[in-house]
Prior knowledge:
alpha+beta
Amino acid sequence: MKEIKGIPTVSVFKFYRNARRILKNPLPFHRENFTELGDTWRLKLAVREAVIFSRNPDFAKYVLQKNQKNYRKTTIQTVDIAKYLGQGLLTAEGELWKKQRKMLQPAFHKKQLVNLLDTIKTAIDTELDKIETGRPFDIFPIYNDLAFQTVVKSLFSGAATKEEIARLQYITEAAQKMVVRELRQPYLNWWFRMRGEIQRHLDLTQEARGILARIVEERQQSGVRHNDLLDMMLDARYEDGEPMPREQLLDEILILFTAGHETTSNALTFTSQLLANHPEYQDKIFQEVQKAEKESSSLMEFLQALQFTQHVVEESMRLYPPAYFIDRRNIEEDEFEGIKIPKDTDVLFSVYEIHRHKDHWDDPDKFFPERFARADASEFSSHYFPFGAGPRKCIGNNFAMYEMIMAVAEVVKRYRIEALDPEIQIQPLITLKPKNAILRFNSR
Length: 444
């Protein structure tokens, strides 16, 4: 690729010298380069291949909003992830994405989500019943099951068996781990293919599609409505009046499974860890929940009354954004603040770094939910991207926030959360995952 003037460069030799630690956790490597080189730098991956990394929120808004028509997602999503999940909203580009977004947007409108609140609440209550009190344990598996069950029940009501749900969960998580290995060890892709690992995971995703196809077929033949997300997707029509093709529907469902449960389970785990380290905020949530329960006549009213609980979730997603990077590739040559960017250049924005940038946040490493309660909290929109930004902002952001606020409220209502180790460990994969989230829950 052409040289990019005005951007400091990290050599390919430094990349390979740090390959082992990057595979384990790339964030310290990123932080070192941002500290040394500034908010935007280039990483050489090979003689003709390089990626721009940036934590400049103005650059991010320029790419994601102001000049978004000149940018598409990189092959990380459109090829590497798409080969396992298909061409759904997360991975599709161009006219297909526009067509699908327009078709599916109404299903995720707040007015439609009201119909799912009871289902979400039931799924949360069922999974939280599995928490064992008085002993240390890793909370992530509980939240992982909670988030997956919430998506499944919101999509299918009771159509999927326990065995099918478990299998779908295993397959989606196995595919993600394989993608991470391929992305972080591109020099071993020939080995993965030769050993049949890539094909084995492709076969697994075909198995998942078979399970989903059966559920869809049975729903259509039954003629019974459940008013869940599947019904909404089956009801949706393109401008010409045609329904979504079966294979496209399966693509969208696989995307919902992956994006809909992964980020939520991560965020709930990090939120619990942060609350464990700050018991004063647990008490504040508990008081808010008690007041809201007395004064609310519906689940939506209850959720709207939980303003501080919402700020806790927002602050948790600032410090530990599950979607911790956003990737784009420019279609035509571009320029931003004097930096000329040749066409087909990959740009990765570190949401993790933007959310912790000292130039944009007071005490950026401090957990301080009150910052989102300030009258001028709207100012954060220029450098706060937990669900992305622009036309491709996550379509399920309202669904996710309702689920997380409801789950945090119920957890704090039932338990006091105790930290055994104040350190919060992370595991950056496709999303930012928690590691060793060992907590103790005591009944109130």
